[in-house]
Design goal:
Shape: globular
Helix content: over 70%
Strand content: under 5%
Radius of gyration: 20 Å
Order of helices and strands: HHHHHHHHHHHHH
Largest sheet: none
Length: 248
């Protein structure tokens, strides 16, 4: 009798501990709003688990806006990095065009750089915003197909990542000023004007590189984006007035 009671108690404890959260229980329904992401998750259980855990953690910190941004970052860092050089370099060109559109809107520019998105009021940037979106979608599709086919790529260690950042800061087209380097290193606390001008220079430097080297460098930057604290980013950006960013 006592053994039976212990067994029942243990079963109840396990059910409580391993019961799916409300977020997890509705995850697939919510993911269905993003057909490409849903398709990827349905074909690769490991990726689905990554998407689930990262978006749930972001949701706890910053609600659905943060969760959606965490999904975009996870798609890029886990799938887009497998895209071929042509697709990766298309992203570089599209993002440079958009950053130039946003050069005179520094808060919106920084919002795009750290959170990846645009607000409806940035009408003059819409065509290039659409170009960026299309480039990323094409790279995701290509990257997932290549990943499924067995294509692999070697992720950079800390030294190679630092080397890439230093190279992009020095040229070959435009070197970052000391003030721009400081702003970039300050992350969310950096002057948005300087953060934006630094990003434009880095994108220009990428376009001047050999196609294969540029793609390798951009993949390293994409993979490194997985370290972004989405909750912290959204908290900062959503508190800023006139950032050109929608937090609803």
């Amino acid at each position: 009798m006592a053994l039976g009671a212990v067994t029942v108690t243990a079963w109840l404890v396990c059910c409580f501990l391993f019961k799916p959260s409300a977020f997890e229980a509705t995850f697939d329904d919510n993911l269905a709003k993003y057909p490409l992401a849903a398709s990827i998750a349905s074909q690769d259980p490991n990726l689905r688990e990554i998407f689930l855990r990262r978006t749930e953690a972001a949701f706890v910190q910053g609600g659905w806006v943060a969760a959606n941004k965490a999904l975009r970052i996870s798609l890029a860092a886990e799938v887009e990095v497998y895209a071929d050089d042509e697709h990766i370099n298309a992203i570089i060109r599209a993002e440079l065009a958009l950053l130039r559109d946003l050069e005179n809107k520094p808060l919106a520019c920084r919002a795009f750089l750290f959170a990846g998105g645009m607000a409806d009021e940035l009408l003059q940037a819409k065509p290039d915003d659409q170009l960026v979106w299309s480039a990323h979608q094409a790279a995701l599709q290509n990257g997932f197909e290549r990943r499924l086919s067995g294509v692999r790529w070697t992720r950079a260690d800390g030294k190679e990542t630092a080397d890439v950042m230093q190279f992009l800061g020095r040229g070959p087209i435009a070197a970052l000023t000391p003030a721009e380097l400081t702003a970039t290193a300050s992350y969310l606390d950096g002057d948005p004007n300087l953060v934006c001008s630094a990003a434009i220079k880095e994108a220009l430097n990428l376009t001047a590189m050999d196609a294969a080297d540029a793609a390798r460098a951009r993949r390293i930057l994409i993979a490194n984006s997985a370290r972004i604290d989405v909750g912290k980013v959204m908290s900062k950006i959503c508190a800023e007035p006139n950032s050109g960013w929608s937090c609803s």
